[in-house]
Task: inverse folding
């Protein structure tokens, strides 16, 4: 066996490991940022990063946004820098596509402001 073939065999597991690490979702939820708890409770069940409990590679909201924007924008809300509070409030209050609208008794305007600040901070950090 040639030297090049032996080297290729030896480093193949490293390449697979690097591809696996690159495909894994980033740890973008930071505990010290405003709105994190609200996001995790109200938004992350559909729009969080990582795989779904059903084995799907993405949660439904994240997958829908990834498909909609086809790489032009991230599907993960925590990587988006284009969701200021007024825009977020519009989507939350009116709903969009499969996402239902949420009443002020479910998430307040102040909580939406906190989530918007959290999303801006996580986008900037990543």
Result:
């Amino acid at each position: 066996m040639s030297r090049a073939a032996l080297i290729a065999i030896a480093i193949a597991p490293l390449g697979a490991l690097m591809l696996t690490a690159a495909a894994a979702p980033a740890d973008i939820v930071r505990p010290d940022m405003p709105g994190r708890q609200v996001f995790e409770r109200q938004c992350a069940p559909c729009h969080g990063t990582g795989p779904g409990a059903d084995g799907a590679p993405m949660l439904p909201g994240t997958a829908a946004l990834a498909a909609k924007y086809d790489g032009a924008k991230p599907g993960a809300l925590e990587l988006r820098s284009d969701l200021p509070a007024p825009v977020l409030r519009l989507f939350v209050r009116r709903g969009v596509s499969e996402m239902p609208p949420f009443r002020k008794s479910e998430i307040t305007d102040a909580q939406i402001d906190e989530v918007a600040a959290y999303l801006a901070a996580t986008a900037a950090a990543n």
